[in-house]
Design goal:
This protein has 410 residues and is of the alpha/beta class. Helices cover 47% and strands 18% of the residues.
Length: 410
């Protein structure tokens, strides 16, 4: 299986070759700037000591302070964090927010930890890395297994060393220097760029059917936005199962069900199908919004959608990507499709620096403007260079990053 890091490097190298980048610049863009690995001792509630390993990998800072999530998951390792850090460099460049890329994580299963243990772990991790991140250096944000609350602890611990600095993390609670609309931002961004894509193919959203895999933060907000915009969503899923209703799923009812029961388990608004079946439904638009590597060379030939929107990170493997292209299926790449979250993180950081709060309507307007502009640029590059939208997004990103490197010097 191709890892996210390998896939990102492959796409980057393909685009770098098309752009005619020198080997040294290519190597500079691939190599992370700094990799930090720390021991994080955690005193458990029962008095035992558990030793965890934490990472912060800072990939590139040519375009600004580095930016990327912090993940708590037992599978976290240096390879995964490295790949995600690189992806952040290209994502921030595609949407043109003035950040570089980074990622971090702790190899731990947060579901086995009490809230007090999570807090101690987070504060101890900050003790180890506080001098390498900060508002003008590297700004973490929530990712898998971390929440706005985790960000509040990070901010609080960081400030013990460095004084008032709410911009040292984003994705904070709205009550504590967070931004309105950060929660919905990635899903909303997915909706905005999907609509833009359909317009370019003269497809009206009202005439298109959708299947969405994953009904968590990204999938549910994308579903809500698309539904409100007139889309007919005929299938949704989460880890508990997939549901199909050719007449259209009642999305508000599904959202309500998840709010009440914690998952789609027991949802009666559609016939239960399997998650693999959802992926191969004959819909116009398929939105994988759950996991990486769900469309691989094993099932790519079965995909019948006309458009695949990569709402998750790396849902289509490079081998599958080639098969989809051969079959005339248009893929909107993750570094554009799910960049709404980092875009609103940027707005949060700007507000923290300005000591001024924007209201939700302003955040939504700016998100729409940023995502639409990024889509238009990627679309134009794809037309001019006769390449896929993915290659166009990488071409745009590496052009912006390599220019920043050259203009700033080494
Ligand atoms: P989440 O944990 O909130 O939701 C994940 C959803 O996927 C849940 O509904 C879960 O039940 C479902 N799921 C898990 N395994 C599944 C399976 N085997 N089949 C079907 N559904 C399954 O996570 P999220 O924040 O929505 O993130 C989803 C993806 O988007 C991830 O790849 C993440 O890296 C990426 N992403 C998230 C953000 C963000 O702002 N949240 C930003 C950029 C990228």
């Amino acid at each position: 299986m191709t890892t996210l890091g390998q896939a990102t490097q492959l796409y980057l190298e393909e685009a770098a070759d098309i752009a005619g980048l020198s080997e040294s610049m290519k190597s500079l863009l691939i190599t992370p700037r700094r990799e930090t690995r720390v021991e994080v001792p955690l005193l458990r509630d029962n008095g035992e000591l558990q030793i965890c390993i934490g990472y912060r990998i800072q990939h590139n800072r040519a375009r600004g302070p580095m930016k990327g999530g912090l993940r708590y998951h037992h599978h976290v390792d240096a390879d995964e964090v490295r790949g995600l850090a690189s992806l952040m460099t290209w994502k921030t460049a595609v949407v043109d927010v003035p950040f570089g890329g980074a990622k971090g994580g702790i190899a731990v299963d947060p579901t086995t930890l009490s809230i007090a243990e999570q807090e101690r772990l987070t504060r101890r991790f900050v003790d180890e890395i506080h001098d390498i991140f900060g508002p003008d250096r590297d700004i973490p944000a929530p990712d898998m297994g971390t929440t706005p609350r985790t960000m509040a602890w990070i901010m609080n611990q960081y400030q013990k060393y460095h004084g008032f600095a709410p911009g040292c993390v984003t994705g904070k609670p709205v009550e504590l220097y967070g931004a309105e609309g950060r929660n919905e931002a990635t899903g909303r961004g997915v909706g905005i760029v999907t609509l833009a894509l359909l317009k370019h193919y003269s497809s009206s959203i009202d005439d298109c059917t959708f299947a969405i895999q994953g009904f968590g933060n990204v999938g549910s907000f994308a579903a809500a936005w698309l539904h409100q915009s007139g889309a007919q969503i005929v299938a949704i899923s989460d880890i508990s199962g997939a549901f199909h209703n050719p007449a259209g799923i009642d999305i508000p009812a599904a959202l309500n069900h998840v709010q009440q029961h914690g998952s789609l388990n027991g949802f009666t608004g559609g016939k239960q199908i399997s998650n693999p079946e959802l992926l191969s439904l004959p819909v116009d638009v398929l939105v994988p919004a759950a996991l990486g590597n769900v469309i691989t060379e094993d099932n790519a030939a079965e995909i019948r959608a006309r458009y695949v929107i990569e709402a998750a990170n790396g849902p289509v493997s490079p081998a599958a990507d080639r098969i989809l292209q051969q079959n005339g299926i248009v893929v909107l790449p993750d570094i554009l499709a799910n960049a709404g979250g980092v875009t609103v993180s940027y707005f949060e950081w700007v507000q923290n620096h300005q000591y001024f709060r924007w209201d939700l309507s302003r955040i939504r307007e700016e998100l729409e403007r940023t995502m639409s502009r990024a889509f238009d640029r990627v679309w134009t590059v794809a037309q001019e260079r006769h390449v896929s939208l993915r290659t166009a997004a990488y071409l745009l990103a590496i052009d912006r990053v390599s220019q920043a490197v050259e203009l700033g010097g080494y």
